[in-house]
Amino acid sequence: MLPQRMKKAITDNPKKLANLIDLVNLPSTLRDFVGQSQISRLGCFMHVWSYIKTNNLQDTNNKNVVNCDKKLKGILLGKPQVELAELPALIKLHFPKEPK
């Protein structure tokens, strides 16, 4: 189910997969949005994506752009519009970095 490019990245560096699926305690803004106190980064992204699809927040003219409503702006740095390509990076900001 994963794209070939992502499969290769994960097999080359298994720690990347662990970073995507490890459960993490969420900050309050994200906790309110997701409705859970712990979730993986991948699970959070999937939750945000399903919220976007359920509420028809994709721009009708350009499907690569998401028009943020008030709830989504709260977790995406208050931006009124976000491109799909920058969505994972904006979600990643809410997850604490692991010490090396």
From TrEMBL:
Pfam families: SWIB (PF02201). Residues 19-97 form the DM2 domain. It comes from the Eukaryota. PROSITE patterns: SWIB_MDM2. This is DM2 domain-containing protein. It comes from Carya illinoinensis.
